[in-house]
Amino acid sequence: MRYLSTRGGIQPIPFKDAVMMGLATDGGLLLPESYPRITPEQLNAWRRLSYPELAFEIISRFVDDIPPADLKGVIDRSYATFTHPAVTPVVRENGVYILELFHGLTLAFKDVALQFLGNMFEYILAERRQNLNIVGATSGDTGSAAIHGVRGKKGINIFILHPHGKTSPVQALQMTTVTDANVHNIAIRGTFDDCQDMVKALFNDLEFKEKYALGAVNSINWARVLAQVVYYVYAWLRVTEDGKAPVSFSVPTGNFGDIFAGYVAKRMGLPIEKLLLATNENNILTRFVNKGDYSLAGVVSTLSPSMDIQVASNFERYLFHLFGEDPARVRAAFAELKAEGRITFSNEEMALVRRDFCSVSVDQEQTLDTIGSFYKETGYLLDPHTAVGVRAALEQLPGDSLRVCLATAHPAKFGEAVEKATGVPAPVPPAIAALEGMPTRCKVMDADLAAVREFIVATIG
Predict the structure, then answer these.
(1) Which of 9, 113, 188, 338 has its CA 20 to 30 A from that of 58?
(2) Where is the Threonine synthase N-terminal domain (predicted)?
(3) Residue 301 has what pLDDT?
(4) Residue 147 and residue 115: Cα distance in Å, rounded?
């Protein structure tokens, strides 16, 4: 299995090199040359597998440069840290299935991918006797999950940029209370898009990237998307009996990474009826699906901050496929976005989009209403991001279909919103309760690329 850039500027590379490269050296994102197919017979054979066993079956189809026993060891170590024996259990509530992705160390879906990526980094670095300086941007959950994936690991430093004061208090504490010597938090006076733009700029400076051995943990890293493909297959196997009932997934997303993993699963042959893309007021992706309007707008702060994004970095991977794997068309699209603040699409292209995706935007009032009514009817607490996905599923997906909603965070991570909606405090897990009063370390900076670059260089020494 070899990996290509969406912008066509690199020679095909193996999996381990793709992991270490992160963002392609031509500024594009990495994708496999082809997707291995899953047959109905294979799906049936996988029904009795545990989550780590299923992860090995899927991930190994994309990896041919790591011995199977070593790959299995990386996967087993990654999911041994989860508190639920099923890793990503599925529960049925009020006519929908909830895929709980919050049983990892930081109580968010990012743990599923970042525990795997952290262990994969450690494995490759030890083999190559190299060091790595990870640089990432977060709107909340990626940062803490990445930090907990690599804290204390030999040969790795991590620098995480987050928008100052625009994550939830719990998200901020989960990052800044990790004071291991290899962990460096940078709070940027600006938006997540400012953080993401600076990280991309650092990676696009190829001389700087090579000199300081930069590595990526954002979902620009293919290994993260690959790890997320697994839970779509796992959930599908848990909600179906004969594989004949239509299954759709509702995905609260801002950066298009989580839902792109579902798209990959569908391309592999998983029988997914629809992928429902659920956004908050930052609805560029909903406008794209429903109106063909992919135009930039300002970022609105909401109760679901991990989705407060305008420029969805993983969208480029999908565009590569939408444009018939034509790198020139991808390059032209992003040149148009830079020059005019929008990308335009043909009617034929939009027909292809709507074959796989539908979308709806859920505002803050609807989010709070959903948290409150869902709790009243079922006793089940939703965090604001999951509530966006649940509201979208109840509105958009047929009631006689199997509707799987991705629960991307534990409700206690957004306790203020949950209590406002229900009048009931979200139960606080020990992992969150322990954060209060812990020492913190964080550097607050302006959205100044030169200053961030200087800080990274000075810290590396």
Answers:
(1) 9
(2) 2-79
(3) 87
(4) 10
Residues 6+ apart with CB under 8 A from 141: 106, 108, 109, 110, 171, 306, 408, 409, 413
Among candidate residues 99, 378, 112, the one with its CA nearest the CA of residue 247: 99
Question: Which residue in the list 16, 72, 110, 376 is annotated as catalytic?
Answer: 110
Which amino acid does the sequence have at 287? R
- Do 373 and 382 contact (CB within 8 A), yes or no? no
> Among 208, 190, 196, 262, which residue's Cα sits nearest to residue 230?
262
Backbone region of residue 256 per phi and psi (left: phi > 0; alpha: psi in -120 to 50; beta: other values): left
Q: Hey, how many other C-beta atoms are within 10 angstroms of the C-beta on 200?
A: 18
Residue with tokens 């100052």: 164
Contacts of 449 (CB under 8 A, 6+ apart): 198, 201, 202
Q: How far is CA 357 from CA 161, 176, 191, 239, in A?
A: 31, 37, 28, 20
Query: What is the SS3 assignment for 189?
Result: strand
**φ, ψ dihedrals at 457, nearest 5°:** -60, -45
Task: Report, as ranges of residue numbers, the positions in the chain whose pLDDT lies below 70.
Answer: 243
110 is known as an active-site residue:
yes
What ranges do the domains of the chain cover? 90-107+225-422
pTM: 0.93
Burial (0-12, 13-18, 19+ Cβ within 10 Å), 423: exposed
Given a contact cutoff of 8 angstroms between Cβ atoms, the answer to whether 113 and 78 are in contact is: no
* Among the listed residues 357, 367, 345, 249, the one whose alpha carbon sits nearest the alpha carbon of residue 300: 367
90-107+225-422 topology per CATH: Rossmann fold (3.40.50)
